[in-house]
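Side project, low priority. Logging it here so it doesn't get lost.
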Amino acid sequence: MASSFAVCRWTQIFVRRPGGETRTGREICSHQLPLQRENAPQGTHVVVEFANRESVASLLEEAAIPSISHEAVVPFKSRLLSLKKLGSLDSPNQQSGQQCKPQTSIPINELIKRLSREESIDQQVTSLTETYQLTEENSRLRFLVCSLLQDIAAAYFPECTIKPFGSSVNGFGKLGCDLDMILDLDGISGRKAKTPKGGLSLEYNLKRANSERAVTQSILSVIGECLDQFGPGCVGVQKILNARCPLLRFAHQPSGFQCDLTANNRVAIKSTELLYLYGELDPRVRFLVFTVRCWARAHGITSSIPGAWITNFSLTVMVLFFLQKRSPAIIPTLDHLKNLAGPADKSVIEGNDCTFVSDFSKIQLQSNTETLEQLLREFFEFYASFAFNKMSINIRKGKEQNKPEVTPLHIQNPFETSLNISKNVNATQLDRFVALCQESSWLLQQSETNTPSLHSKGGSPTPWGLATLLLPSQVGGIKSRKKRRLEPASVRIKSLLESLKKS
């Protein structure tokens, strides 16, 4: 099914005025994008939304396959278009009335300065979230990229869909985060058995494979080859087919997104829906997750590179678990959400019970009035003393359980309960996390860090509160809390400021 969106790369900015209206559509996003391949076509990319799909079809009828001297081109018709200079155009410096917000997050040093100007830690947490969360334009651009890739996959599977999951849509996405996508084949008609008529059944003649995993690997291999050879703007395609969850990894140059594409990963979709539900139940959930994630990335607790680090998903589950442990609890356990579910909510995927209520009106929350400052301080205190050596984190029950296996950090997968989502984390990384929690808890307890400071002579505010938590830690590791208490707070803050100047 054709989408009512198209992406155009203008050789010069061309949007007719007034009001940002063009002859065929409305620009909703226009910005320079960081193309990642040398000699890639430069220019401003514009996302144009049309009133209906017929308008897109009419536009595509006017498009031509370019003729490039001494080069062969793949004649693949995409909604990713280039507009060449034609006759009399508006001024190259003239843009439409609607400009989108920045599509990348600000540097950490700039964020620290911005947070230092706030008057309370609650305001700092709110400001951090509003600064780093996905913009509406960025979210819509992610859905558009899925739609463009679906056009390619539909050549093999006409009724398939490609849709985003994870941070792009669960409400916890940060500007610049990867675009996780799923190729959904379950919606293809004919997959559900039909009642035979007259004792006869009619079935499609299909290729057979040894397992569902082998089918997924074959499908992704073919789609990956197609993206690599024919997909406009898709570069650096990697086939990671032997992973626990086979995937394709590539960069989509026009949008600037790093993309991961999996197939039929329905449990991941349910996990995405669950995190979105939790984020909508209480605004403090989203604020705290954003803050803890930013803190973790600033200190190298999480990383975009696969390894022994704690993942964002694991960190988010740790925040949810902490909020379930408050007295009274801020969010309910997954088992409670399951008990509230109706017949339409029932979901069992590959033997895993993924059922939870979807009707928000059925969820009665307890009255908890703790501030964001209190929650942030208590979060660090909670995990600074958590018994990681013997206990497992479980948001289904909302309570600690004995570890079922010997591993530094054990966080039960909410739906695939036999799996540990933090199995990759080694003892060194867990020790760093605990030490940073101890230091952050100590910092938030100091009176000097809990009130805004006067501006320095240079006009820049002195970091305080949450801003001090984002400053680099000292060389040689984190000191113990006992030793920290022996060190005057003024000395500690001075050394933190010096480390900021050097960063």
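Brief comment: DSSP finds 14 helices and 13 strands in the chain.
Revisit when time allows.
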